[in-house]
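If your schedule permits, I should be very grateful for your opinion on a structural question. Kindly check, if you would, that the fold set down in the tokens agrees with what the sequence suggests. Thank you for your consideration; the sequence and its tokens are set out here:
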Amino acid sequence: MIQSVKVKNLSLSKANVRRRNREVGLEEFAESIAKNGLLQNLVVTPLKKAGTFTVKAGGRRLRAIQLLIERGTLPADHEVPVLVLANDNAASVGASLTENRQRVPMNPADDCDAFRTLIDEHGMTVEQVAIQQVVSVKFVEQRLALAKLAPPIFEALGAGEITLAVAQAYAVSPDTDRQARVFEQMQRSYYGNNPDNVRRAILNGTVKGNDAKARFVGRDAYVAAGGRIEADLFATEIDENWADVELIERLAAKKLEVAAAELAQAEGLAFVTPIAATHVPYDIERQLHEYHAPARALTDDESARVEALSAENDALIDQLEQELPDGSTEAEAANERIEAIERELETIEDARHEIDPALKAQIGTFLYIGGDGEPRVHTRLFSEKPIVNPNAPPKESGRAAGDSDAGDGEQGPKLSATLIDELATQRRQILVAHIASDPAMALDLTIFLMAQNVVFEQAHIPSHSTLKSSAAGFPIVGFRDEGSLASQTIDDQRQRLDTSWAGLPTMTARFDAFRALDDEARGAWVAFSIARTLEPTLNVAEGYRQNGFHDHLGRLLDIQVGNWWRPTAENYFGRVKKDVMLDALKEIGGPILRGRYKDAKKGDLAGTCASLCNGQGIVEAEIREKATAWLPEAMRFDAVEKPAKSALRSSFVDDDSGTDPDEDEDTDTDADDGDGIDDDNADVDQDDGQHLSEAA
């Protein structure tokens, strides 16, 4: 029978069959009871002490009410209705099991209908429904979004034909026509019930609001032009999806074309080509001729002014360091004067790089969209045809055309080919002996030859040296990773290099001008030239792609890969086995986190892992921190270099050294690395004197 009993006379029975997840949602459950009262009685059996009972079914209700009493929400002598059963253990366990098994969660579609009824028919607001049902406002908004799904999808949700996750994937767009079309397509697809596939299909042809192109166009301009914006209520952070991609492209192209035309007119350039992307494609650059404006020498007046300004600047710095107190009026005046000196020196330097208007009429550049959504001018100049300087003096007769250091043009006596080779060899030995004894000159020559190779990579200009800094080939044709942060940084580094020396007509002039650059400018050239020679390696790869030395370099440079690359479903998780993803979760959050997703489908699991590793998952703070720092082993710089197998090494290795020669990395083979280049001869120029002796 049903009777009222004080809560303090009730205790939880060990026979209650719910053993796990007892505390899950207890806070929310207690709030619901405080708001709506206890809607279902407890099931109890009497104890030996008169008036006391043990709760066989309703343990969570008991704990929630006890929590409310502890907080003072309910009085200490609060009573609850209970159904008293006979003291029969089998009956008690059966009652507990029956109650828990029969408590089937509501179908999400029923939730949606109920919430919609409360709002449409009873005039409640979203906030009022959230308070009544003790849920968040966002939860109510999500259910209402599901209620607006295309009818076939909502019916499938109600019938249990699709999961809640799949329904949420369809709801990322409010366009019910698009939902219905995709739903029909997915019905015929083997992976039609994969939320990630559904979401990609729904969002196909949409752009995120924080995309560089969207930021360049601007939200107001996009909306004013009739652009539609959709919000994904089911994302951890609500992101806008701009649905009209063609409109975005059209607005971006138009805005960029206007800016490019204005820039071309203001600078007097032949063209400024707008590129509606975050980088200028390499293939487009290769179709043009790169132009390098030579810096003219300072005039006598400019040299004198630079010397005077430099002396004044040094004197002011000495005063600031030794005489003038910080914050004084005199110190502020000195700092202002130093800034003015720097501006004047920059103006003088800029004047050295001014381009003849007649030449400007033949050259141009690119205007593209930076990653921050701002228009960015390519720092290098290009021409569609080789530059012709109409103001250049006419060539002297008898002189060789092109890039030549032929001296006074005298041909001299005709020599036999054999004698030419012998004399060239002897002179080469003399030159080598002198350069080898002058480290400073050798270093300048090293940097210059590598820099010249970078600048004139597409043109054949003989340097008569086997030293090159050719860019390493990529293993996959067509995959250049141009849009990544690292690739954009490399492009920015290339654009900032000082090429004032490169436009001079002879190698002699270029070398002298290059040597005149300051240490920072030359240092930037050597860093860039050497860096571009590094080939792609991975610390878990076997064979040619493995190189622990690159990992050593990464550690020395303290590279934080996570700041440059994050694993996503597209670039990693969706392309590895399920066990690999589960192991990643275990590494991030231990066995418990792995266990949460062990039964998930591969597509869902890839999306979950990607969300966690990009800071979008709803997890504990400690797990979130580990997830946002996690990287697959392949991308870490933590491998140890293995000794390379070679004939020289193997002849000195003892049999008991503990190293199996068959397991060593073979880096000296002639295996094709897939770039179509013979690696042994990749850096050898056939015209650069291969026939000379290599004795030195």
User: Anything to note?
Assistant: The longest helix spans residues 329-352.
